[in-house]
TrEMBL record:
The keyword Manganese does not apply. Pathway: Glycan biosynthesis; starch biosynthesis. Belongs to the glycosyltransferase 1 family. Bacterial/plant glycogen synthase subfamily. GO terms for molecular function: alpha-1,4-glucan glucosyltransferase (ADP-glucose donor) activity; alpha-1,4-glucan glucosyltransferase (UDP-glucose donor) activity. Keywords: Glycosyltransferase, Starch biosynthesis, Transferase. Its EC number is 2.4.1.21. Gene3D superfamilies: Glycogen Phosphorylase B. This is starch synthase. Residues 605-625 are annotated as: Disordered. One of its GO terms (biological process) is starch biosynthetic process. It is an enzyme of class 2 (transferase). Residues 626-750 form the Glycosyl transferase family domain.
Length: 818
């Protein structure tokens, strides 16, 4: 048994930042990095929180003393007057002053004692260092310590952006030794590796005893100086309280900042330095609360649920505090919630009563989520939407969310509202809750689908505490645009309330943001949107690459990637098997392949690619045979999705010998009946299956298995199905509208670079249009199969539709709203 200890400390260093010197002058601005700090300086500036841990208790040899301390890393050596190398961010050169910042990097200092360990006889010792579960591994050769021949030391840097969790650095280490005659051996801590971690989010100051004395005096000096600054009116009460708390907690960054100005007599200079520090510390990122009716994977009806989770996750990774408030439906997927616990009860005034509402918290997809559960059973309906009192349910939810924020004492920077279900938050905040103390938040409202506006008669608004007389005005919630408008009918809408009272309004693609000004798409909201045009924009949705990941999707029977697509063919075979459809390559397909029908191709570049046999032609390991094309539909079955075009597209594909799989859920009874008829007429033989339900796992398997997916929507605010399909190498056939127009470019579109061409585009609502598009896709699959599999699928999979770009756009929008 042994109980060797290891130590790990980390500090956030800003590579290059301390060394940047701004130079102004008439000549070309120049700047250079500061000289590399000496080891002693680095050690002095190390602000390591020291963590002890036990190595493998059963391992026989004594544990190595592995100490990893941290310091701001030395800048990379750079020639004078050079602009920063990759990773640096540079202000525009013509500004006259140049500023460069490099990515924050955590520096690790590592020491290993070989005495009594398996590497005792080795002259060279190399540390293999990884982090976040052995990612980004690097080999670092350690150098012997001059003080102790058994001690080896080395340093390594981890860019903060590479950490899986910005709150922890979890470092894994094993050691390789090279002994006499080049003999190699390893020390992996008895098979357990070294697992060292440090809490980065709580970088408190834990000083060795010998340094504690001066530190205490410094903190006392700071506390007294803060008193003086407050007394001189140089700090507000809030700033004083916050700085005092940080000084009290011996916050390292603040104390060090103070150390540099301790002897400065000018109080206002000291105050401004501390405040710049204070602002940085107080604002590590924005605090954004999404008030939403859906979030994957716990409550999903359509794309809204994907967007809330995907956007909040992307923001969380970039340092924003992202929270979600959700109704606690009884039909929620409880298994996907971790640490679900009741927090407390609040009372929510609604319809003349006080409704006791339980507040729960839980972690979903790594996000902090608050669930609201009113005791009146409004969310115990075994369905998300579709109850006769949906308007009341979601108005209540909006009020309860604000009531909870007030009770919790939180002051988020932004409340991000989604569709009519949380729209009432905006007028309630403006009319009531700001006055009650919720002063900080700005409202951002995202329209995911303008077809749903939450129409109601004005008196209903009084239930949630909004004054119907004040709200039923054209500049507030009154909808005077609808045909047949008459006072007293359904003439207010929640969507209008959110547009009027929010600081920013977005929709989910740039094209849809233009289309909604047309009567055909705007559904009566054109006038109010025009009035608020200055704050309205379109930001394209992304998809959550963790959730939609063909390399590791847990719903798939086989996996694949853009580089190795063989698993896609396995997914196709196994899906057909799952649905009882044959997996064959009929003779007509083979004949067509060999029958020289290439000349029939309408797309010249298809011809070229097929002839050239770009790539390895068989999809990088996929079966060489083309099989029958498999066309998929994964959709809510509703008017918006272009139901007649879906039907016609399916019939066209079947007539061309394709196989078809439809996964759809209909909420309207007549649509359900129509699709049951379709299933009976077309979905039982060897060619097609029509599955009428919501099934997350099956949806994933279909995206992975299909060759093409049909999305001929009449209108589509953004559409996620085509983006998900692209990620799984399934080629979209889409109508040119909304987000479909922004994301899918026809393979024959000479107006865009070739690697942007990723699908087949139709334009219009006539059946003939979908027929042409499906025909073109079938021809391409059958006649240019090598190009399809070898190039088109690879191109589609390589495109990036993740949240990275759009999350940054939302961040700028939030900042603009503050
Ligand atoms: P919308 O939000 O209008 O329904 P989107 O394309 O934005 O359309 O998002 C649809 C989302 O719902 C996608 O994640 C899609 O996979 C999923 N989806 C649609 N229908 C089904 C279904 N029947 N079963 C499982 N998932 C479905």
């Amino acid at each position: 048994m042994n109980g060797g200890t290891a130590r790990l400390g980390a500090a956030r260093g800003r590579l290059g930042a301390p060394g940047v010197r701004a130079a102004s002058g008439a000549t070309a601005a120049c700047w250079r990095r500061a000289p590399r700090p000496t080891a002693a300086a680095a050690a002095r500036s190390a602000r390591a929180r020291v963590v002890s841990f036990k190595s493998d208790p059963d391992a026989a040899p004594p544990a190595a003393a592995v100490a990893v301390a941290a310091a701001p890393l030395a800048p990379r050596p750079a020639a004078p007057n050079l602009l920063p190398t990759a990773g640096g961010v540079v202000a525009p050169r013509d500004a006259g002053v140049q500023l460069a910042c490099s990515e924050p990097t955590y520096g690790l200092r590592l020491t290993y004692s070989r005495a009594g360990r398996p590497l005792a006889g080795c002259d060279r010792i190399i540390a293999r260092i990884g982090h976040s579960g052995w990612s980004n591994t690097a080999d670092v050769e350690l150098t012997p310590s001059p003080a102790d021949p058994d001690l080896f030391e080395g340093a390594h840097g981890i860019p903060a952006s590479q950490l899986a969790n910005p709150a922890h650095a979890e470092v894994q280490v094993v050691f390789r030794g090279v002994g006499a005659g080049g003999r190699e051996c390893w020390d992996n801590n008895g098979g357990h590796d070294w697992q060292l971690s440090v809490e980065l989010a709580q970088e408190g100051l834990v000083l060795p005893a010998e340094r504690a004395g001066p530190m205490r005096a410094l903190v006392s000096s700071l506390l007294l100086r803060l008193d003086a600054l407050a007394a001189a009116g140089l700090l507000t009460a809030e700033q004083f309280a916050s700085l005092r708390n940080q000084a009290w907690a011996q916050d390292f960054a603040l104390v060090r900042a103070y150390q540099t100005v301790r002897d400065v007599a000018d109080d206002s200079a000291v105050a401004s330095l501390l405040l710049s520090r204070f602002n940085f510390l107080r604002r590590p990122g924005l605090h954004v609360v999404h008030v939403a009716s859906e979030m994957v994977p716990v409550a999903k009806v359509g794309g809204l649920g994907d967007v809330v989770t995907g956007l909040a996750k992307a923001h969380q990774q970039s340092g924003i505090l992202s929270e979600v408030i959700l109704p606690k439906y009884d039909c929620i997927a409880y298994a996907a919630i971790q640490e679900l616990r009741p927090l407390r009860s609040i009372e929510v005034a609604f319809d003349g009563r006080r409704v006791a509402t339980r507040v729960w918290s839980g972690v979903v997809e790594g996000l902090p989520v608050t669930f609201l559960e009113p005791s009146n059973g409004m969310f115990w309906r075994r369905q998300f939407y579709g109850a006769p009192d949906d308007l009341e349910r979601f108005m209540f939810f909006a009020r309860a969310a604000l009531e909870w924020l007030l009770a919790s004492g939180k002051q988020p920077d932004v409340l991000h509202l989604h569709d009519w279900q949380s729209a009432a938050v905006a007028p309630l905040l403006a009319e009531e809750f700001r006055g009650r103390g919720l002063t900080q938040p700005r409202c951002v409202f995202t329209i995911h689908n303008i077809a749903f506006q939450g129409w109601m008669t004005p008196p209903l608004l009084s239930k949630v505490g909004l004054d119907p007389d004040r709200m039923a005005r054209p500049d507030a919630m009154l909808d005077d645009s609808r045909p047949g408008f008459a006072p007293g009918s359904h003439d207010c809408s929640l969507l209008r309330g959110a547009i009027a009272f929010s600081d920013r309004v977005t929709t989910v693609s740039p094209t849809y943001a233009r289309e909604v000004f047309l009567p055909e798409f705007g559904m009566g909201a054109q006038a109010i949107l025009s009035r608020h045009r200055h704050k309205f924009s379109g930001i394209l949705n992304g998809i959550d690459n963790d959730n939609w990941c063909p390399e590791a999707d847990p719903f798939l029977p086989a996996h694949f990637s853009a580089a190795d697509r063989a698993g896609k063919e396995d997914c196709k075979r196994l899906l057909l098997e799952e649905l009882g459809l044959p997996y064959t390559t009929p003779n007509w397909v083979l004949q067509r392949q060999s029958g020289g029908q290439h000349q029939q191709l309408q797309l010249q570049q298809l011809q070229q690619h097929a002839d050239q046999g770009n790539g390895n032609g068989n999809g990088n390991g996929a079966a060489a045979r083309p099989g029958r094309p498999l066309l998929a539909v994964v959709s809510r079955l509703t008017e918006q999705k272009g139901l007649p075009l879906i039907e016609h597209g399916i019939k066209t594909a079947l007539a061309r010998g394709a196989q078809v799989v439809v996964l759809g859920a209909a909420s309207e009874p007549d649509v359900q009946r129509r699709w049951e008829d379709m299933a009976r007429d077309h979905g039982s033989g060897p060619d097609a299956r029509i599955v009428l339900r919501y099934d997350e796992g099956l949806a994933h398997r279909i995206y992975a298995a299909a060759d093409a997916i049909l999305v001929p929507s009449f209108f589509e605010p953004c559409g996620l199905t085509q983006l998900i399909a692209l990620r799984y190498g399934t080629i979209p056939i889409v109508n040119r509208t909304g987000g479909l127009a922004d994301t899918v470019r026809d393979v024959a579109d000479g107006g865009v670079p070739e690697n942007a061409r990723n699908g087949f585009v139709l334009n219009g609502r006539e059946e003939a249009r979908v027929q042409v598009a499906v025909d073109r896709a079938m021809d391409a699959f059958l006649d240019a199969n090598e190009w399809w599999r070898g190039e088109l699928v690879a191109r589609a999979m390589a495109q990036d539709w993740s949240w990275s770009r759009s999350a940054a756009d939302y961040l700028s929008l939030y900042r603009g709203a503050l």
